[in-house]
């Protein structure tokens, strides 16, 4: 523990020294930063910190608020039905002090995905549980099983069926000749060009939260219901350590939102935290993480938020056809209330 505290103090000193010359980098602790204009989630996380809750509590309560309110239909129950018409959830939480992680993916029947993720962290030696087994685990832990469908999700699914199950995330396949919605069989490679019509900023998606207390303890978390019409069993970036989020109390934390199938290949949250460890300004760390992906997928949709252990924060996003500016929330003692921030995409 002594060695950890010394390493953390040195890292904070290094970051503070290297960012002190940046006039735009204003630091304030405690701090909560979350993706998108999800003000209620930001308020819940900030209120938790202000009332003495831990950074883990703040992350959990912020994500849980979004799950309960079905933020933009992209978090929590009742949104993003898969090809079977079922809503499934992904979530993750990470303790930057201990480097413990709990995550769930393809979770069914349980509305409080972030709570289940924390239960994985605190009641198992595992990091990630998926599918039906994750749902059974949640029920055994006392979480209530409920139908995650709503009139809205049923309507979305019905309209998709009437449209011959198009668009979808399949490629290089064709359906049964007598049906339009599968079963699908492989065929020769071809380009369908459907991603840009599905993965866009208008649908929002993951809530990612990073929280720091007065002593620089860090936690991060995510929650989402994934992509509408996804192939059943699909897992995106949100519950993947280093992709959806990452936290290390000796450096900082980051969280990502966007096209998870692409972003998870580059571990943008981990990269951003490692850059901040070397003293890179959070805004630049986020931008570098986005640039790494942009090099291979110039039109992808995505954004990253970052915060270091001194309370400096930043964000970056890729300029895609549906995203020219990214909005996020910041809560600290300067305002003592969640404030909407924005960054121009590049």
Automatic annotation (TrEMBL):
Pfam families per the UniProt record, alphabetical: Asparaginase_2
Q: Which reaction does it catalyse?
A: N(4)-(beta-N-acetyl-D-glucosaminyl)-L-asparagine + H2O = N-acetyl-beta-D-glucosaminylamine + L-aspartate + H(+)
- Gene3D superfamilies named among the record's database cross-references: (Glycosyl)asparaginase
Q: Which domain of life is it from?
A: Eukaryota
Keyword Glycoprotein attributed: no
Site (Cleavage): residue numbering on this chain: 205-206
Residues the record marks as active site:
206 (nucleophile)
Keywords tagged on the record: Autocatalytic cleavage, Hydrolase, Protease, Signal
Whether Nucleus counts among this entry's keywords is no
Task: State the GO CC annotations.
Answer: cytoplasm; lysosome
Per the record, the GO terms for biological process are: proteolysis
Write the Enzyme Commission number(s) for this entry.
3.5.1.26
Which residues does the record give as substrate binding sites? 234-237, 257-260
Signal peptide range in chain numbering: 1-27
Annotated Gene Ontology MF terms? N4-(beta-N-acetylglucosaminyl)-L-asparaginase activity; peptidase activity
Classification via PANTHER family: L-ASPARAGINASE, N(4)-(BETA-N-ACETYLGLUCOSAMINYL)-L-ASPARAGINASE
Q: What's this protein's function? A: Cleaves the GlcNAc-Asn bond which joins oligosaccharides to the peptide of asparagine-linked glycoproteins.
To which protein family does this belong? Belongs to the Ntn-hydrolase family.
Put simply, this protein is called N(4)-(Beta-N-acetylglucosaminyl)-L-asparaginase
